[in-house]
Amino acid sequence: MNEIKEIITNVGIPQFYLKLGLGMLCSFLLTFLSIPTIAKISRRKNLMDEPGSRSSHLRKIPNLGGIAIFYSLSVCASIFAFELFDLYKFLFASLVILLYIGVMDDIVVMRAYKKLFAQIIVTLLMVIGSDVRIRSFFGLFGIYELSYFFSVIISIFTFIVLINAFNLIDGIDGLAGGYSIICSALFGISYFRLGAYNYPLVILSAVIIGSVVGFLYYNLSNKRSAKIFMGDTGSMILGFLLAFTAICFIDIFIDKKLPNVPRYYLQAAPAITMAILILPIVDTLHVFILRLSAGKSPFVADKNHIHHSLLNLGLTHRRSTFYIILYYVFIVTVAYYFRHLNVNILLLIIMVLGFIGAYIPRFILATRKTTN
Question: Is 0.70 topped by the overall pTM?
Fold first, then answer.
């Protein structure tokens, strides 16, 4: 280990930047190089995503791309951001459980209650075992520090909601992957600006980006033989990691009075986090509202998601993905610009903008039908 550190020092590049660059590059290469093999095996064994009533594709596509994402994340994060696995001892175990459940669901389609049970186990490991918790609301709804019990309940709920909400936006090419890149980049930049203590989280964000970029090369491909989906495996793992990085981000601004740990404070931290993760949150709420207003169960699948509305307008998958991500990056920009506002006011602005973005495509579609 000392010899490796000496080599790194002699190169003249700071250790952090070397780990950051190598972590991103290696995660990209591992995903990029492993997906063709996974796709070939998927076709040979007929492990494909079949077109259905909710599908936005018309032919069978391999859907085990999430295995490659897990592979690159687990290898590169444990090498270049190993401090996280030392600090959060159940992080790797949680990823392995999600891999197993995701692959099972992608192959044989598991019952919803079994998936939920596994997600609860994973979140219990992280929230109680690794102490990854939302400890304060920073004055949101007039609430500040949370009791341990309430903190655990809220944190478990947050993990499960974000895992499943992220799974719901994975409906068109590039959306879940592209959005996870944007979220990881925003969290990574924020961690970097908050100092060296958070560098392992910066590297984790870079590893996620590299891995997903490698996947998107195939997911956005026009070649039928190259195309692949991330499946529930990829969407659950990415949703889990984004929930993890989001809760860690909020936790940074709580003064735990630990030695050698910098102290920061930003009252709007929960609202900023909500802005970064606004798409899966608003999309899920918007779909639930539409289903309830139609007298249906909120858990019955349909085609009322934001991306479905854009497809109904005649947009391609790529254009739909681009417009959705562009609009929600605009919301993050607004949140950052007004970050010194009262947290309740800022959250209200973010949610209003989020729902406006969700209903704009439906409004345009209704207007077209009226004029025709």
Answer: yes
